[in-house]
Write a structure and sequence with these properties.
The chain is mostly helical. It contains six helices and four strands. The chain has helices spanning 6-20, 29-35, 42-54, 79-87, 114-130, 133-158; strands at 58-61, 67-70, 160-164, 174-178. The strands form two sheets. A two-stranded antiparallel ribbon has the order 1-2. A two-stranded antiparallel sheet has the order 3-4. A hairpin with a 5-residue loop joins strand 1 (58-61) and strand 2.
Length: 179
């Protein structure tokens, strides 16, 4: 099974949060962790930010009003680069690792499945290359808008009450009325 670790998951969440605040003040790690429900992961998030900073994706500001912000616009940050900064090379199998990493495998020369793993790697890489942080932010915000509309609609349905029609005896017809 191909999996992204919590480094990738949490790191992408950090980057989406920073993208939402792009162009604004620096965001403290405490603020981000509380917003993302990761308040018990503060030291771990610091490690992730250090990796992202080393790869030139975020910058930090020290001091009372310090924090983190994107070093580039969300349109310039591809998901493939973000995940490489957090997880390392993209590879479904060690024998299909990107780049020039030497792999010790006694079957590589005559491997019947190497082609498959290389194609899977290339498809994953192409997909991640095609998605920027701005694209992900737009999709996330659209999903939140749909969820909010559905929640609002469910809430409105709960506000409908049945009241007796005026002039009718108790037990007669009822009207649905929005409260």
């Amino acid at each position: 099974m191909l999996r992204v670790s919590t480094r990738g998951e949490y790191g992408v969440r950090l980057m989406v949060y920073l993208a939402r605040n792009y162009g604004g003040r620096p965001c403290s790690l405490t603020e981000i962790s509380l917003s993302e429900g990761l308040e018990l992961q503060q030291q771990y998030l610091e490690q992730l930010m250090r990796s992202l900073r080393q790869h030139g994706m975020v910058e930090s500001t020290r001091g009372a009003h310090g924090g983190y912000r994107l070093a580039k616009s969300p349109e310039e940050l591809r998901m493939s680069d973000i995940l490489r900064a957090l997880e390392g090379p993209i590879a479904p199998m060690i024998c299909a690792t990107e780049g020039t990493m030497e792999v010790i495998c006694d079957r590589l020369d005559g491997c019947s499945t190497h082609f498959l793993w290389a194609r899977v790697r290339d498809a994953i890489t192409a997909t991640l290359d095609a998605i920027t942080l701005a694209d992900l932010l737009r999709e996330a915000d659209a999903a939140l808008t749909v969820q909010a509309a559905m929640a609002s609609q469910r809430g409105a349905q709960h506000l409908i009450t049945l009241t007796p029609r005026a002039g009718r005896a108790a037990g007669g017809e009822t009207n649905a009325r929005q409260v």
